[in-house]
Amino acid sequence: MKILKYFFFLLLIVIIGFSIYVATLDGSYQVEETAVIDAPAQMLFDEVNDYKNWEEWGPWAAKHPNMILEYPEKTSGEGAGYSWETDKMNGSIKTTAVLPGKSIEQEMVFDTPFGPSKSKVYWKFEALENLPNDKTGGTKVTWGMKGEQNFWEKAYQLTQDKTPAEMVRPMLKTGLKNLAETVKKAMEVYEISVNGVTQHSGGFYMYMTTASKNSGKALGAKMAKMLPQVFLYMQQNNIAMTGAPMTVYNNIDEQNGTVIISSGIPTSSRVITPAESEVLCGFLPSQKVVKITLKGNYDHLSEAWAAGKKFISESRYELNKNANPFEVYVTDPKEVPNPAEWITEVYFPIK
User: Fold this and answer.
1) Tens digits of per-residue pLDDT, 91-103?
2) What is the distance between the alpha carbons of residues 305 and 297, in angstroms, rounded to a whole number?
3) Of 300, 293, 301, 229, which is closest to residue 265 (Cα–Cα)?
4) Among candidates 34, 183, 26, which has minimal Cα distance to 122?
5) How many whole angstroms separate alpha carbon 130 and alpha carbon 302?
6) Please, which contacts does 180-186 make with residues 24 or more away whose CB atoms are closer than 8 Å?
């Protein structure tokens, strides 16, 4: 009897000692992964902010093909969330704070045999001026998780060969990789429509002129400098803006691969500018044109031009050599982050 008594006493000492040991263990954990993604910060933010999008790139779908998802009425923004069920573990996530285009904070809860296990999840979106490959734009995306294990979680962790950070990190890496691929695919969608012959109303426009290499990258850089200056000039001088930004192709030298362009913004009437002003006022007459619409990235403008020229040739129309082709940028990339949704109209004056 004494032996049994001593055995239970010894067992009690072991239990107490083990409890003290577990209690003194540091149960805090934090893990994060970062990726530079060639996409606008706002577009990436919008993709992550709506939980229904997570089905496309979430890293756990491959591990749990039979996962059951349940969505509430609100799936994006602060207060949004969703829950899931698998054959191993159930859980839920809820958005607790949002800074549009910049960051998202979430709370994730797993149902475990030891009770609810809570973690703080966070996203950061940092717009970059230049990517490592010298391409402009891009976003540094950080996805992280942190939390504090309770007593039973720390005790269970002693039986595992990996820490919480070591178990979560591969999932974060895979998720960011999937996110980049999903967004890239969405950005690459484009459509070119031949609208045919129409009458363009023309009108006055404020503009700046420059010469450029006839390449998308060079032209984009020139326009990105001129259009803000024209916009600022019109604001400072209270000149009404009556339409979307545009670029007129004054002269195209195909042999040397150069072009002279005028980029500007429509206005309601003629404006006389000072002699020293780099911003001038021009006029487009009402004229018959062939209209082509590009829905997609500006990278495909050369294809839109080719489609217009092919239509003119096959329809036996003749370009008006006394007038200049021009582009109208219907959407503002700052308001429409996904390039696949940008709309550009290309006009070819014809006789």
Assistant:
1) 899 999 999 999 9
2) 14
3) 229
4) 34
5) 24
6) 180/35, 180/37, 180/38, 180/39, 181/57, 182/47, 182/53, 182/56, 182/57, 183/37, 183/39, 183/43, 183/44, 183/47, 184/38, 184/39, 186/338, 186/340
Look up residue 296 and give its DSSP letter: S
Please give the Cα distance from 166 to 314 (Å, whole number).
63
Give the integer Cα–Cα distance in Å for 159 and 167.
14
Global pTM exceeds 0.70:
yes
- What is the pLDDT confidence band of residue 16, given thresholds at 50, 70 and 90? low
CA–CA separation, 36 vs 19, rounded Å?
44
156: part of which helix (H) or strand (E)?
helix 151-157
Tens of pLDDT, residues 194-212: 999 999 999 999 999 999 9
Listed residue (293, 302, 337, 48) closest to 187, CA to CA: 337
Coil/strand/helix, residue 19: helix
Q: Return the exposure string of 172-207: e unless at least 16 CB atoms fall within 10 Å of the residue's CB, then b.
A: bebbbebbbeebeebbeebebeeeeeeebeebbbbb
In angstroms, how far is the first alpha carbon of the chain from the final one?
Answer: 114
Secondary structure percentages of the chain, helix, strand, coil, to 5 = 30, 35, 30
User: In the chain, at which residue ranges do the beta strands (DSSP E only) sit?
Assistant: 28-37, 68-70, 81-85, 90-99, 103-112, 115-127, 139-148, 191-200, 203-213, 246-253, 258-267, 280-284, 287-295, 326-329, 343-349
DSSP state of 221: H
Residue 171 Cα distances to 32, 114, 176, 292, 332, angstroms:
10, 23, 9, 44, 35
What six digits make up the tokens of 22?
A: 């577990």
